[in-house]
Design a protein that fits this description.
Blueprint: H1 13-24, H2 33-45, E1 49-52, E2 58-62, E3 74-79, E4 102-104, E5 107-109, H3 117-131, E6 140-145, H4 148-151, H5 153-156, E7 167-170, E8 178-183, E9 185-194, E10 197-199, E11 204-212, E12 217-218, H6 230-242, E13 248-254, E14 260-261, E15 265-272, H7 273-276, H8 280-293, E16 302-308, E17 314-316, H9 318-330, E18 334-338, E19 346-358, E20 361-370, H10 373-389, E21 393-400, H11 410-423, E22 428-432, H12 438-444, E23 449-452, E24 457-458, E25 466-468, H13 469-486
Parallel strand pairs: 3-6, 3-7, 7-23, 8-22
Antiparallel strand pairs: 1-2, 2-6, 4-5, 5-25, 9-20, 9-21, 10-17, 11-15, 11-16, 12-14, 13-15, 13-19, 18-19, 19-20, 24-25
Pfam families: M20_dimer (PF07687), Peptidase_M20 (PF01546)
Domain Peptidase M20 dimerisation: 211-284
GO cellular component, one term: cytosol
Length: 489
């Protein structure tokens, strides 16, 4: 096992040195300032021009190497922030603590938290290019955006004309051996309701139901794997139990990010004391049913109830509770359409990512994605209408466009030639059911010819996220070769 301090011993050393820095400096969405300050100081020390645009993005510029001055400029692009997820029982403050990365069996992994290889490795690759001695390259711009994981605010706010380059290489995909030439667009659906509450009868007892042990994952690229959604499972269980006894919902929380499949959820409920004391058999039956249902994808699912001696207080009124649980139980979450153009790729999906009910205030957030913007909009409208049918307020927010594939891209053809020359076989071509920033960048800079590639990353947006060391080295080899070719075209 190797700790963060040994990441610099990995090859390519410059890439891993930058990644070690990214692990050391906390960078949740909206908290990238310390990292940006560090990178500006680094750029100044290396004679690299840097500036922050009106959206807060960091842009680094380096002139072409000798002989490449007349070539069209190239933009290398990634995002600075990371998804922050930790396992229950893992104490980690993402705004203060470094990421604890270890090396195991050829992978760099964070075992109790997310690693931030999404998109820290892409950022590290771009930074390493800027300091690579003797590398032939055209004029370079490195665009490092902010708040990508929280709503793509940086890319959304990039002013037209900010970038001078003619081609853009996005370094934010997670499957080595493929060039990505398109991605899904997305939109959030926000659901809110202020609930009427009643006093819980004195002879009721509190019980805390907990769903945990799920793998979670990226709400786009992992949505087709049919992993358990902790919020949906908890709502299913509570809705069933409420049909058999007088269940009173006091509190409920699940998920931490709209773009991550929820791994954990809990609810505090009040039940007649005699019922509360005899729940174990029902809980065990439900648990065994889920273990069978998810035997191939989430075999470690856990469902427990814990008894609480705290005197009951207030709960949601029975009528409104029925509406809330029915809505959560029946709301669409998962794959709704498979692509007809790209075999094995999800076309349209939704993810119930976050839910909270506390002191009468209910909120839920869905992430909707589609390779076709109109389909994402239609599914979001359907979810909002579904919420309205239960008397809940719902609206769409944070829409961003997809990236339409261009199979005749000159950059793609060049990258294919370089890949085949370097590795002896052609790369695969793919679109990704995730929200790359390319769609927004194409909207503000329509002249850009774009492509995306990256190393093998597994478990993005979930604890245990890992990146394969060998594929990072291959990405580095490919990126340098592509830039050298672009310097002489």
């Amino acid at each position: 096992m190797t700790t963060n301090t040994d990441l610099n011993n990995l090859q390519p050393s410059s890439v891993w040195a930058h990644f070690a820095t990214l692990c050391a400096i906390p960078r949740p969405s909206y908290h990238e300032a310390a990292l940006i300050e560090h990178l500006i100081a680094w750029a100044n020390a290396h004679g690299i021009e840097s500036f922050i645009d009106g959206a807060g993005n960091l842009i680094l510029k380096k002139p072409a190497s000798p002989g490449g001055e007349s070539m069209p400029g190239v933009v290398l692009q990634g995002h600075l922030d990371m998804v922050c997820q930790a396992n229950a029982g893992t104490v980690h403050d993402f705004e203060r603590d470094a990421i604890d990365a270890v090396v195991r069996d050829g992978w760099v992994v964070a075992e109790g938290t997310t690693l931030g290889a999404d998109n820290g490795i892409g950022v590290a690759l771009a930074l390493a290019v800027l300091e690579e001695p003797g590398l032939a390259h055209p004029p370079l711009e490195v665009l490092l955006t902010v708040n990508e994981e929280s709503g793509m605010d940086g890319a959304r706010g990039l002013a037209p004309g900010t970038l001078q380059g003619k081609t853009l290489i996005n370094l934010d995909t997670e499957e080595w051996g493929h060039f990505y030439l398109g991605c899904a667009g997305g939109v959030d659906v926000e659901v809110r309701h202020d609930c009427a509450r009643d006093n819980v009868p004195a002879d009721y007892a509190l019980v805390r139901f907990e769903v945990s042990g799920l793998r979670g994952g990226h709400s786009g690229i992992d949505i087709h794997l049919v992993r358990g959604n902790a919020i949906k499972l908890l709502a299913e269980a509570l809705h069933d139990l409420s049909s058999h006894t007088d269940l009173r919902l006091v509190e409920m929380k699940g998920g931490t990010a709209r773009n991550a499949i929820p791994r954990e959820a809990y609810a505090v409920c009040a039940l007649p004391a005699v019922i509360a004391a005899s729940l174990d058999e029902w809980v065990q039956h439900r648990h065994e049913s889920w273990k069978q249902r998810y035997a191939g994808s989430d075999a470690n699912v856990s469902f427990v109830c814990r008894h609480d001696d705290t005197p009951p207080g207030m709960s949601v009124s029975p009528t409104e509770q029925e509406r809330l649980l029915a809505f959560l139980d029946t709301a669409a979450s998962g794959v709704s359409r498979v692509s007809e153009d790209f075999p094995g790729v999800t076309d349209t999906s939704s993810n119930l990512g976050v839910v909270a009910f506390e002191k009468g205030a209910f909120k839920a957030t869905f992430k909707v994605r589609s390779l076709h913007d109109a389909r994402a909009d239609a599914l979001a409208d359907k979810l909002a209408a579904h919420a309205a049918s239960y008397g809940l307020q719902a609206w769409k927010d944070g829409a961003y466009p997809g990236w339409t594939p261009n199979p005749s891209s000159r950059l793609l053809a060049l990258c294919q030639r370089v890949y085949t020359a370097q590795f002896g076989q052609p790369a695969g071509l793919q679109v990704i059911h995730a929200g790359l920033e390319c769609g927004l960048l194409a909207a503000s800079h329509p002249h850009l010819d774009m492509i995306s590639f990256g190393p093998d990353i597994r478990g993005a947006h979930a604890p245990g996220e890992k990146v394969e060391i060998e594929s990072v080295a291959r990405c580095w080899q490919l990126l340098k070769a592509v830039l050298q070719e672009l310097a002489k075209v």
